[in-house]
Amino acid sequence: MNSRKPSSTFPYWLAALAMIFIAMVFIIYNYEIYNVVFNRVAQGVGITIYVTLIGFTFSCLLGLILAIGMNSQWNVIRQICRFYVELVRGIPMLVLLFYFAFVGTPMLIDLANFIFTYPQQWGWVDKFAIRDFPMIWRAILALMISYSAYIAEVFRAGFQSVDIGQYEAANTLGLSRFAVFYKITMPQAFKTIMPPLGNDFIAMVKDSALVSVLGVADITQMGKLYASGTFRFYETYNVVTFIYLVMTISLSLALRGLEAHMDKRTKIQNNIS
User: Fold this and answer.
1) Following DSSP, what letter does each residue of 128-150 receive, concatenated?
2) Beta carbons of 218 and 36 less than 8 angstroms apart
3) pLDDT tens readout for residues 26-67
4) What is the pTM of this model?
5) Alpha carbons 156 and 152: distance in angstroms, whole number
């Protein structure tokens, strides 16, 4: 059976989204209520970006450690890392957010007070209180814990995509485990890791809206506060949706461009070799 190729490669979906974007920009610029809503809601963009960037950075670091642990030669380390990944992946994001904010944080504070018992008695360190742990950092750490489990699987799959012959050649040359990881594993696995990692970043931008349940003043929280005070739910959530769409679609297009650039470089290198 012959597969039929599409008659046109023109991105109609992108044109439709561009029309929606232009229409919303026109409405926000020309209608006072939309302009007011946009100015109010846009105050949360900085917090959304901050939570996403910090949370994703920590998630990648922890996910990398977990992926390395799951490929460890020590069975105990592999089992501990696998236990963490499977446990966290089985908990809904919203539940984990509440759990860490209202259960995990008090436990951490109690543990810190126990560790610093004597320094606190001697007056070297003040006693830690739950109020000293801001909600924004509870939200960031909850996002980190949740996404690190998924990102660990992304890294692990990327590492396993490297041909085993590469490792055998490295062992023959007498390279250390760090040198093998830095010079062989990561450069080759990066091409496999990058697309799903970018998708996880976009997903975190959207899931960062959940931090609003903790009162963090992100885009969703600013929209919720304005809508509940003015009863302008229609206009407010049109603007909130528009801002998230602009952020996520822009990131998605940037990711597509990066993938195309990487594919082009790979083809050039293959032709040269």
Assistant:
1) P-GGGS-HHHHHHHHHHHHHHHH
2) no
3) 999 999 999 999 999 999 999 999 999 999 999 999 999 999
4) 0.85
5) 6
* Backbone φ, ψ for residue 177 (5° rounding): -60, -40
Split at pLDDT 50, 70, 90, the class of 267 is: low
Distance between CA atoms of 145 and 219, rounded to whole angstroms?
Answer: 22
Give the domains, in start order, of the chain with CATH numbers.
44-260 (1.10.3720.10)
d(CA 31, CA 141) in angstroms, rounded, equals 39
Query: Do 237 and 227 touch, CB atoms closer than 8 A?
Result: yes
Q: Is the pLDDT of residue 272 over 70?
A: no
Tell me the average pLDDT across 95-111. Answer: 91
What sign has the CA pseudo-torsion 75, 81, 84, 89?
negative
What is the Rg, in whole angstroms, of the alpha carbon atoms belonging to the chain? 24
